[in-house]
Amino acid sequence: MSVEMARNWFLLTSKPHKDEVAEFQLRNQGYEVYRPLAKRLRTQRGKVITKIESLFPRYMFIHLDDGVNDNWAPIRSTTGISSFVRFGTEAARVPDALVTALKEQETLFGERAIDLDRYHSGDKVIIAEGPFRGLEAIFQKYDGEERVIVLLEILHKQTKLALNPGHLYAA
């Protein structure tokens, strides 16, 4: 079996607010690391700014073999690294397909990235797809990663509706 075939992605945790430092330090040591990024809107000194942050704060992926050619010992003492995510005594392996899919999505979004704070409670939005397409609604909240809750006026009554956040745009 070739060395390339024996390589797997593993999941690491970093210390709080040290994702970027940990990634930089691991890359300096020659490790292949992947930390998915997302665009977030933040308020800083009264201004709304766009900031690029970890999609999964405190988590990153590292591509290693099972200890034949890669030395795992320096990883644990790298600045910013907390530990490997483990299931029992084994370091958590991540399927290649998952990491590939994350990289493709990140590339697909490009500069847009993933805006995790696009809508705020009370924002007016327009439904872009489905049976309510073109109707105006009021954004209420994010409900998990795949849904948002909006208020839609139907027959003079406000009704809560769960939608995919990709099916909305700002009014």
TrEMBL record:
GO annotation, cellular component aspect: cytosol
Cell inner membrane among the record's keywords?
no
Q: Which residues cross the membrane?
A: none
InterPro entries in the cross-refs: NGN-like_dom (IPR006645), NGN_dom_sf (IPR036735), NusG-like (IPR043425), Transcription_antiterm_RfaH (IPR010215), Translation_prot_SH3-like_sf (IPR008991)
Read off the SUPFAM superfamilies from this record. Answer: N-utilization substance G protein NusG, N-terminal domain (SSF82679), Translation proteins SH3-like domain (SSF50104)
Keywords per UniProt: Transcription, Transcription antitermination, Transcription regulation
Residue ranges of the NusG-like N-terminal domain? 6-106
Would the keyword Oxidoreductase turn up in this protein's UniProt record?
Answer: no
The cross-references to Gene3D superfamilies, in alphabetical order and at most eight, read: NusG, N-terminal domain
Pfam entry (one): NusG
Q: Record's SMART domains? A: NGN
Give the GO biological process terms: DNA-templated transcription elongation; transcription antitermination
Task: Read off the PANTHER family from this record.
Answer: RHO-INTERACTING TRANSCRIPTION TERMINATION FACTOR NUSG (PTHR30265), TRANSCRIPTION ANTITERMINATION PROTEIN RFAH (PTHR30265:SF7)
What name has this protein been given in UniProt?
Transcriptional antiterminator RfaH
